[in-house]
Write a structure and sequence with these properties.
alpha+beta, D-amino Acid Aminotransferase, Chain A, domain 1, D-amino Acid Aminotransferase, Chain A, domain 2, 9-stranded mixed beta sheet, globular, binds pyridoxal-5'-phosphate
Length: 285
């Protein structure tokens, strides 16, 4: 079955879909995005993803391409046309197209909207979760506005590539003081030897992960001990458990950091439990 992409008002075969070379997303990474999980053909945590999209747009003074209601229809239609049952839907909004020039285009220039959707190999993701993944640490070399979900992801790309070249699945980015900020495309968590869950607070130096916020609700509901604070790489080495969260993989146990086993080297009970329970806390629409 051929894939279909939505581009600026039209559903087009994926292979033929494209935006102008004058698109601000292509020219300047002047573009924001969201990735939302799909399960059983339904969107997971759509409300929180759409709220974050609005926040990203507001932060960059970017216009909405469609109303929220119309965008919800386009997302569902893209899911339907691609026969996605379990996977992700990807939404990207750019500041539109204009002859290449740094300042914003004139008011009224329509924003660009691209929506794609694809199925995930669930068996492969589950096999990965059963084993846990390896992460490697490296300096966080990103710009200062990483709380905006923009497509300016080159440092993330380089970090992820370096991780893959070292046989790891994710890079954990580390600030100048030796504290982990987040993964290249995920939120970083540890569970201390005393059983306290730790993740970095939202102070502008990490993306406010939607999965992070849902896990925090779950943690509160289950009465787990929790601290929202930065943790160092050494603390992570000494942790009982570690895991990462993101919309495309929910809660993924981390079993190795920089080649050292985390805890006993197997996925921990806390991470596995949160993974098992995640979708009971998530919102399906
Ligand atoms: N941090 C970064 C840098 C990301 O790119 C992502 C997801 O792509 C996340 C965290 C996790 O965010 P979410 O849980 O909303 O997918």
């Amino acid at each position: 079955m051929s894939r279909i992409a939505y581009v600026n008002g039209r559903y087009i075969p994926h292979a033929e879909a494209g935006v102008s070379i004058d698109d601000r997303g292509f020219q300047f990474a002047d573009s924001v995005y969201e990735v939302c999980e799909v399960i059983g053909g339904r969107l997971v945590d759509e409300r929180r993803h759409m709220a974050r999209l609005q926040r990203s747009l507001d932060r960059l003074a970017m216009a909405r391409p469609l109303t929220e209601r119309a965008m919800a229809v386009v997302m569902r239609e893209t899911i339907r046309r691609n026969r996605v049952t379990d996977g992700v839907v990807y939404v990207q909004v750019s500041r539109g197209q204009m002859r290449r020039d740094f300042p914003f285009p004139p008011d009224g220039t329509p924003a660009s909207l691209v929506v794609t959707a694809r199925n995930n190999d669930l068996a492969k993701i589950e096999a990965r979760a059963a084993k846990g993944v390896a992460v490697v640490t490296m300096p966080d070399e990103r710009w200062r506005h990483v709380d905006i979900k923009s497509v300016a992801l080159l440092p993330n790309v380089l970090a992820k590539q370096a991780a893959r070249e070292q046989g790891a699945q994710e890079a954990w980015l580390v600030d100048a003081k030796g504290y982990v900020t987040e993964g290249a495309s995920s939120t970083a968590w540890i569970v201390t030897r005393d059983g306290v869950l730790v993740t970095r607070p939202l102070k502008g130096d990490i993306l406010p992960g939607v999965t992070r916020s849902v896990v925090l609700d779950l943690v509160a509901k289950q009465g787990l001990r929790f601290e929202e604070r930065a943790f160092t790489v050494d603390e992570a080495y000494a942790a009982r458990e570690a895991f990462i969260t993101s919309a495309s993989q929910s809660v993924m146990p981390v079993t190795q950091i920089d080649g050292r086993p985390v805890g006993n080297g197997a996925p921990g009970l806390t991470a596995s439990g949160l993974r098992r329970d995640y979708h009971s806390q998530a919102e399906f629409t």
